[in-house]
Amino acid sequence: MSEVVVSEKLTWYNLSIKRFIDLFCSIGLMIVIGWWLFPIVALLIKLDSPGPIFYVQSRGGIYNSMFNCYKFRSMTISHKDDLKQATRNDPRVTKVGRILRKTSIDELPQVFNVIYGNMSLVGPRPLILAQNKENSKIIEGYENRHLVKPGITGLAQAKGYRGETELPNSIYFRFKLDMYYIKHWSVIFDLKLIWITAKTIFSGDENAY
């Protein structure tokens, strides 16, 4: 996909609508759920294993920028494994962390990233810089997914493409879904993906571990 096609979705009007949805839903989430859920999760994390409540990692943002992405800590502290992707039955995942990851609750602190403005509720998932660099070598036009803000959720995640990316095809299909989302963005599309993600929090996801 050319940058010309992508840029059609990056008008001031569209970006303003998307930003309004981001702020309205994120602030609403904190008012309705976050104020009581976050302290409970924080307490469970501290009781389960030593270490900080939040896990902070540098991720790639819009226009290949870099930002600190926030998550609830779901693993034991091991600095040498910080860049190692989580695998199924990963021994680093704590008991509480396994529940948080299964329900995607570990991703909720990223609403702070959304409110601050370096993420959106919906968009391509942010990866660490090393992964972006490696994927760019494999897939032509991979940088185009960074023409929009990364999201807490996205079309690829709604389609079940999350977790390990051991197979090159998995990376490619995620990229194609990300670009499809960018090309066909609409308010209804965003709301639909937000609704699918909300249901996953309660039902769980077999690819979340």
TrEMBL record:
Q: Where is the Bacterial sugar transferase domain?
A: 18-202
The question of whether Transferase is a record keyword is answered with yes
The record's Gene Ontology biological-process terms are: colanic acid biosynthetic process
Annotated GO molecular function terms are: undecaprenyl-phosphate glucose phosphotransferase activity
Q: Which Pfam families match?
A: Bac_transf
- Keywords linked to the UniProt accession: Membrane, Transferase, Transmembrane, Transmembrane helix
- PANTHER family, alphabetized: COLANIC BIOSYNTHESIS UDP-GLUCOSE LIPID CARRIER TRANSFERASE, UDP-GLUCOSE:UNDECAPRENYL-PHOSPHATE GLUCOSE-1-PHOSPHATE TRANSFERASE
Which family is it part of? Belongs to the bacterial sugar transferase family.
Q: What is this protein called?
A: Polyprenyl glycosylphosphotransferase
